[in-house]
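To: structure subgroup
Subject: Chain for Friday's discussion

All,

I'm putting the inputs and outputs inline so they're searchable in the archive.
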Amino acid sequence: MSFHLVVGHGPAGAATARLLAEQGHEVRVVTRSGPGGGAVPAVEGVEHLALDAGDPAALARAARGAVALHGCAAPPLPQWAARWPALVSSLCAAAEDSGAVLVMLGNLYGYGPQAGPARPLTEDLAPAAAGPKGRVRAAGWEQARALHKAGRIRAVEVRASDFFGPGVTDGGHLAARVMPNVFKGRPVAVLGDPDAPHSWTYLPDVARALAEVAVEERAWGRAWHVPTVPAASVRAMVGLLAAEAGTGPVAVRRLSPVLLGAAGLFSPLLRELREVRYQFDRPFTVDCSAYEAAFTVRATPLQEQVAATVAWWRERLQP
């Protein structure tokens, strides 16, 4: 049994902590609120600690003795540009002080909109994000990678596409703005082209990849894409979810740019999503073949993902 420190208890942090505990590890989760704040479910083998992860000294103390430091925290979307640099610097400092492997959870924002015909994203693409959220995410990994190359820390980044699955509630793609309508058989309004292929990364697969690369020295020093099933459009995914829920066909409509702009005046989330709307206007797919060639985690079959997601939401939406 080894000690893992998980920073953040959003969907990915919670899933990772739970998986590591199930594997028999000692797990400590760091959040601002700690065990008494919010709705933190009790999980056997998981300890919750209240501290500001942006405080390097405090985080370093919490990380001492850990074999891995899993960076799963994320500031609120409107605060990414202001708060990501301090959080990444703190994670790097704690990894250097403790000797723990820094396992960073990343996303695909840093790649930015690719020029030319749409093709699957690979880890060797140069960062080309034009917006602040994409640039700050790319810069965070470059900071950690530079320290890794200098021999000061050991670091790896695991990149996921849009989260899908049990526990995923935030966002407007296949979560809180979609699932209640699916269960009621009501139309769903979505960003971008509802028929464009899109990669959806299953949350339990994210946790399994984070746990695997933490102990695989061959993984360190670079970024990897989480194993993800072949891309499917929003319309296709909604159809699968509705069929599993037993609510029949559900209409999927494109949210017009005009309405999106108007809604952004009142919804901070929709306003922030303008930067990455390009991901839904054309095919947006991820190539995870490098990970699959090197390690053992594979994407959960799509029908299993859909069944587990519908079951989770059915329980959540019970009156």
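Points worth raising on Friday:
The chain has a mean pLDDT of 92.
Residues 3-162+201-228+286-300 form a domain with the Rossmann fold fold (CATH 3.40.50.720).

D.
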